[in-house]
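user: Please review this fold.
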Amino acid sequence: TISIEKSEFLSNQLKRKGIPHQVLNAKYHEKEAEIIAQAGRLKTVTIATNMAGRGTDIILGGNPNFLVPSLLVARGIKPDEAQESDVKMALEQAQAECLNQQQQVIALGGLHIIGTERHESRRIDNQLRGRSGRQGDPGSSRFYVSMEDDLMRLFGGDTIARLMERMGWEENIPIEHPQIARSIENAQKRVEARNFDIRKHVLEYDDVLNLQRENIYSLRRQLLTGTDVHDRVIERTLSVIENLLENYTPEKIDPDEWDLEGLAQTLNGLFPLAEKVEQGMLYGFTREELQERIKQLAMATLKAKEEAIGSEQMRELERIVLLRTIDTKWMEHLDNMDDLRDGIGLRAYGQHDPLVAYKFEAFQMFKEMINAVNEDMIRLILRMQLVRRDESEQPRVRNVVTNRGADGGVSGPGAAGKPAVAQRKNVKIGRNDPCPCGSGKKYKKCCGANG
C-alpha cells in the first residue's frame, strides 16, 4: 500500500475474514527486520506501507534464526539465560521446520507480491517486484489499479477512461492490456517529472540562502578561533560612514539639499564624541572633504577607546561584540527570509518571476543586515564600558551556623526540620535566657558562668 490508513483498512478486512497477517509500517518499525525475514513462511500474509524491503532477503520458508527465541520460550527457557546446547538444539529444530516449509512454499509457486495500487515512483514498484523470484527462487507479482486512485485520477484517468469507452469495456471488470500498462507508466513518468521540478525549484530557493549562510559562517569561524579582527572593524567603520554619506549626502543631489541635520544626529548616536556634532559644523565642505572629516573623527574615537582600555582588551572587545552582533542580526535575517519566501509567490500575479524577485529581494535584505551589523558593532564597541570587579566586591562565603543539641551532637541547618538561626552580634543576653551555644542550659550556668 502507499499509506498507513490503507494498510490499516486492509488489516481490518483480513481480521474480519479471520486471516492471520502482519502489518509493517511506521508504527511497528522496531519489528521491521523480523516481519520481513518471516514474510516467506507458509500461509504468511504481510501488509507493508511504502516499503520494498531492501536490505533483508525474504527467505522462502522463513529465517530459522528468528524462530530460536520463540522455540526456547516454548520449552520454558528464557532466551537470555539459555545455554549454548539449548540454543543449538533450538536452531536445529528451526532449520528443519523452515526447510520443510520452504519445500511447500516452492510447490505453491513461491512468494507472491500484490500491489494494491501503483506508487508515484516506478522505482518503488520495481523494487517491490524484485522481492520475489530472488536467487533462483520461484515467485510472482501482480498490481491492481483503480480509476479512482490518486495517480490515475490526476495524471492518466482521462486517457484510460476514453480507451475503455472506445473498447466497450464495462466497470468493475478486470482489464489486462499492454496499452493500459503503457498509459500507467506514462502517468508515473509525469508524476516523477513534476516531483523533480518541485525539488529543483526548492533547491534554487535554498541556494540563495545557502550562499549567504556560507558568507556568515566563514566570518563566525574566524571570530571563534580568536582571529584579530581589528582591520575588519576599521573596514566596517569606513563602510558605515560611506553608507551614511550615501543616505544623507547623495552625489546626485545639490549640496544645498543635503540632510546635514539628520547626518549630525546619526553621527552623535554612533560615535560618543567629546564634542557634539552640530549641523553648522558640517556646512561648507565637499562630499570628499566631509567624508575625510568624519573618518578622522571616527578613527580618533576608536583610538581614544583603545588607549582607555588597552590594546589587548580592545582586540577581545572587538571580537566578542562583532560575533554577538552577527548572531543577533543573522537570526533576525532568517526570520525575514522565511516571511519573504512565504509571500514571494504572489509576484507571479504581477507577471514577475518569483525566483528572480526572491533573489533580488534577498540580496537587498542581506545588504541591509550587513549595514545593521556594522552600525550596531561600532555603536557597542565605542559605548560599552568595561567594569573591573574589586576584591572587596567578590562574594563572600557565609559561615555555617551549627546547633549543638543537648546530647552533644552537631546538627546542620536542616536538622530536625528546623533551620539554624544566625545570631546577630552585639545583642545583650540575659542571665536567665537560654545559652546561645545551644546546650539547653541557662546562660548564667553555661557560657555566662565566668562572668
